[in-house]
Amino acid sequence: MTEKTLKTLLLQLNCHFTWRLLEKNAEIDEIEERLHNQLEYLINANKYMVYNLLAYIKYLQDNYEEAIANLDEAEKSSLANAAGVKSKLLVTYSNYAWVYYHLKQYDKSQLYIDKVNGVHEELSHTSNAKDTLPEIYGEQGWSMLKFGRKHYEKAKECFEKALKEVPTDPELNSGYATAVYRLEGFEKKCLDENCESLDLLKRAVELNPKDSVVKALLGLTLQDLKRADEGLKYIEEALEQTPNLPYVLRYVAKFYRREGMTDKALGVLKRAVSLIPNSAFHHHQIGLCYRNKMIEKKKLARTDPQNKRTYTREIQELIQKSIFHFEMTVELKKTHTYAYSDLANMYKEANQNVKAEETFKKALNIKTISEQEKQQIHLYYGNFALYAKKCEKEAIKHYKEALLIPVTTFGKEKCENALERIAERKIKENPRDALGFGLLGFVHQIKKNKIDAVECYEKALKLEPHNEEYLSHLCELRLAI
Questions:
Q1: Might you report a single GO cellular component term (predicted)?
Q2: Residues whose CB is less than 8 angstroms from the CB of residue 204 and which lie 6 or more positions away in sequence, other chains included
């Protein structure tokens, strides 16, 4: 068989090599560490999936020996827990075939392709035949979740396909609910009773009551929906079930922090860090807790001026603690955009404006930054420019750049309001300020208030007739009306 023919057969396999998970130049060390942590703390029959993922990671690192070693572990784990269901071996055998192909051991690659075909043939004559696709779609879905937010939508689709065949499978329902939860959280959609993940998480908890992680996610979702009392019940159940599972502790702490129970959150997070010291998530949450305590102390300092000196010292200590943990976060996860933003704002609190600006720039230069994240970073950068640097021109630049990004986050409205305040102040101070009218025109244009936008740009052009930006926007609007 020629190499070209073999490659054609390999491309027909369903496995990590054909799922387009990561490119070789992607940051994978942090994912690898997370997977090793999961092997240590997740005690279930699906460890073979983690070994399959680690094998793919090792391939990306050009470490083929370790890739095969992890596939050996995946095969052992599958055989030990599969209860005779060989469909769990399909992805592992397909991965073997790809690794041996890259090692140019074509005979071994063909051997594993034959094994895949053999499993399919064997299953076609049994009652397990219908379980083949759900098994593969389920593993693909979990793999997509492990490899970051750009794969969440695909993960959701995989679980949907799997559940069409086996709608009451507990693990698949947990996976589907988790994928939707992450999508809604990332897109800030779970804000009312139309929250799709709520019913999915409830169903997952009913089908899989031992899954404490999903139970904790349900608690957080109820908190998002202003039903914290109900959510607390699930949070406490999850904590009681698995008091030393880091993946539960992080969500429990997040719930406590958002409820203002900062000291309780810190206690849980310190336990989590003792279990996984190098978790960026845990360090970020600790930094947020210290930031909350700083804000509380600032409020007390304003209402109790007699003890201002004591509060000032405590505030500075909290700022430094917060900075330490935010710095740890970005060191451990260099693509944690929000941690960069939080760190920059804390540098500002410490009057370290040069460091703050450098950090904002680093955040905007992250290759994997999403449009939602970019919009929010420009908001915070604009606020920093306006209030810390006292540079209105630079602030306007960042607010406008945020609004030109075609997404809607909580930051969009804040940028619109900030530009409107600047514009109205300018016009109040000087009724012939062209920039003020130009900014109002821009905001109206973003809001799709075309008539108001035209009116403002016309006023701006009367005051500054040769401004090409205003003229361009005005022509565009007139053509659209």
A1: cytosol
A2: 170, 173, 174, 176, 177, 178, 211, 214, 218
- CA dist list (Å): 112 to 79, 82, 99: 16, 19, 10
In contact, 341 and 360? CB cutoff 8 Å: yes
Regions of the chain with pLDDT less than 50: none
Interacting residues of 98 by C-beta distance below 8 A, sequence separation 6+: 10, 13, 15, 17, 59, 109
2, 171, 175, 263, 480 from 203: Cα distances, Å: 50, 11, 12, 32, 48
| Residues contacting residue 455 through CB under 8 Å, at least 6 positions apart | 441
Rounded to a whole number of angstroms, the distance between the first and last alpha carbons of the chain is 64
Look at residues 458, 415, 421, 413 and name the one whose alpha carbon lies nearest to residue 438: 458
User: At residue 56, what is the residue type?
Assistant: Y
Burial of 188 (0-12, 13-18, 19+ CB in 10 A): middle
Q: Which CATH number fits domain 1-130: 1.25.40.10, 2.60.40.420, 3.30.1510.10, 3.40.50.2300?
A: 1.25.40.10
Q: Which helix (H) or strand (E) holds 425?
A: helix 410-429
State how far the Cα of 301 lies from the Cα of 319, in Å rounded to an integer. 15
Q: In terms of DSSP H, where are the helices of 188-211?
A: 196-207
Which residue's entry shows tokens 């003229």? 471
CA atoms within 13 Å, Cβ hemisphere of 213:
17
| SS3 of 356-369 | HHHHHHHHHCCCCC
Res 42: pLDDT: 76
Based on the number of CB atoms within 10 Å of its own CB, is 32 exposed (0-12), middle (13-18) or buried (19 or more)? middle
- pTM for the full predicted model: 0.88
pLDDT per residue as tens digits for the range 249-288: 999 999 999 999 999 999 999 999 999 999 999 999 999 9
Question: Residue 471 and residue 312: Cα distance in Å, rounded?
Answer: 51
In angstroms, the CA 215 to CA 235 distance is: 7
Question: In this structure, what DSSP letter does residue 306 have?
Answer: G
* Token pair belonging to 202: 């409830």
- Sequence letter at residue 200: L
* Residue-level pLDDT at 150: 85
Distance CA(51)–CA(35), nearest Å, equals 8
Residues shown for the chain: 481
Q: How far apart are CA 323 and CA 314, in angstroms?
A: 14
Residue whose token pair is 């130009």: 438
Ramachandran category for residue 154: left, alpha or beta (phi over 0 → left; psi -120 to 50 → alpha): alpha
